[in-house]
Amino acid sequence: MKKRGIALSLMLFMALPVTSKSITLEDQPMHRRVSSVFNAIEQNSDIDPKALQLALQGYSNLKRQGLIRHEGLITLIDFNKPSDQKRLYIIDINSGTVLHAALVAHGRGSGDVLATSFSNKPGSNKSSLGFYLTENTYTGNNGYSLVLKGLDQGINDRAETRSIVIHGADYVSEDYIRQNGRLGRSLGCPALSMDQCQELIDLIKDGTCLFIYHKGEDYASRSVVLNPELALGGGKRQNPA
């Protein structure tokens, strides 16, 4: 059943893109890679096919707009999963392989074991969904950190104002889970383990695509990355949440 479900998801993705625009010839090389990426799901069956579908569609749109400076990688964070599970995946689109699966914390305002609430507002201490572009690194109060630029208007475009970055934290570890039943929580940042932080940041820094997903939000219809026409005034106005 699992393989049939994956195959069906692949067929639906190829036939029904998220946006209303038709697939162009320049999109085809990207879509030919989709089958390889879905094969990676068979080896890593905890990746949600819907999350991957949206990640690939958004990546394709951003690539077509020339916004991705470092092509070939997608970082997918699935906040539909509880924090005691690995839910960050770094995917090599060219080879169709998952390079890393890692623990990642959500914001303390978003929930306890599960993240259930998301916001773009400063001071909310909540995680924000949507597509990001990774930027430069720096060393600050949380050590080695990676700046994130939110690309979805009204959903995560205040990320830089809110100082939402990827950084390491001592509350992200298997030991912490054993002692507390879940990871600790950040002030809204996707925090990684101290052991993996530098390696993963160095892999995805300087212009790669990052996508934070949760199926409980009506995200896909509001995203200007998945629906570029919204950014041109053709859709409903985004309200900061």
Question: How would you portray this structure in words?
Answer:
With 241 residues, the protein is of the alpha+beta class. It is built from five helices and eight strands; from the N terminus they run αααββββββαβαβ. The protein has helices at 2-15, 28-43, 49-64, 174-180, 197-204; strands at residues 73-78, 88-92, 97-102, 130-140, 143-150, 165-169, 191-193, 209-213. An eight-stranded mixed sheet has the order 3-2-1-8-4-5-6-7, sandwiched between helices. Helix 1 (2-15) packs antiparallel against helix 2 (28-43) and helix 2 runs antiparallel to helix 3 (49-64). It is globular. The relative contact order is 0.18.
Structure summary:
The chain is an alpha+beta fold and 241 residues long.
What is the strand and helix layout of this fold?
Layout: H1 2-15, H2 28-43, H3 49-64, E1 73-78, E2 88-92, E3 97-102, E4 130-140, E5 143-150, E6 165-169, H4 174-180, E7 191-193, H5 197-204, E8 209-213
Parallel strand pairs: 1-8, 6-7
Antiparallel strand pairs: 1-2, 2-3, 4-5, 4-8, 5-6
Helix pairs in contact: 1-2, 2-3
